[in-house]
Hints:
Blueprint: H1 5-23, H2 30-52, H3 60-66, H4 77-87, H5 107-112, H6 115-124, H7 127-132, H8 134-152, H9 157-178, H10 183-205, E1 218-219, H11 223-228, H12 235-240, H13 249-255, H14 257-263, E2 268-269, H15 272-279
Parallel strand pairs: 1-2
Domain Fatty acid desaturase: 29-261
Organism: Yoonia rhodophyticola
Enzyme class: oxidoreductase
Amino acid sequence: MRTEWGTFALILMCYAGWLIAGLVWATPFWLLGLLILAVLAAFHTSLQHETIHGHPTRWPPLNEALVCLPLACIFPYRRYRDLHLQHHRDEHLTDPFEDPESYFWSEADVRKMTDFQRHVFALNNTFVGRMVIGPLLTIIGFARTETRRLARNEPGVRLAWVLHLPGVAGVLAIVTLVFGMPLWVYAIFVVYPALSLTAMRAYAEHQAAENVGARSAIVEAHPLLALLYLNNNLHIVHHASPRTAWYDLPALYADRRQQYLTANENTLFLGYRDIARRFAFSVKQPVGHPYIGRRSQGSQTVRYPHISKAADD
């Protein structure tokens, strides 16, 4: 694997742009600065995702170091890495027990919820709800599960948090001492909107389906949003070939578009405006997983049908 200098340059540009935008806080253009900070914090999570899959170098410790300053602050890199790689066990995609990135609950858990909880999670399954309350629910859920894992001293969890805290301290020091920005402003107007932008991408990328291929969608996004998400909007392409670099995904999709659409049963959105039009205040799928009522048993190797050759073979 070669060093991918374009991705390396994007990481440097992300950090440089974040610093410049932060300095705009002390100028009459502070609102523009906040907007750019939020976008770059969201973009940073896309860059972290790229490093998790082995980019831009062949050395994982170097890739981790390149994105170790967590602009969105919330999630330790190594926890994101471990949970996301677990998510890539595609035979368990959307399973509320096995997929750590699933937004579904088991039917048994739904029955235990109060009416208020069911309404909240149903709202979270609308496009607007996912962007407005989705980040808060994610933070609360993540904090609860991580607290349990820390109490049980699960392997690697404490180390992930120990490595994360100096990075958070560095971000907060820059925000307060260099930008002169109150921490509450950064939390409310940078971190939360960044998580909302990430939630916008994640909202439609998976769905419950019996066919593994149909669990991952395609969003033919505007080029600027595709860049923000490093083409992860072409989500079945990423899942079918997770080691493919972000800049190779569009060509791979263009070359095999009909094969991917056949594999995912034509789960296609013509941009995020299309998603908003269809699901702004409509529940996309139920809170309870429609196919999984109990813990999944066993595993199998998933091969996406109708896709003749994975790009990373």
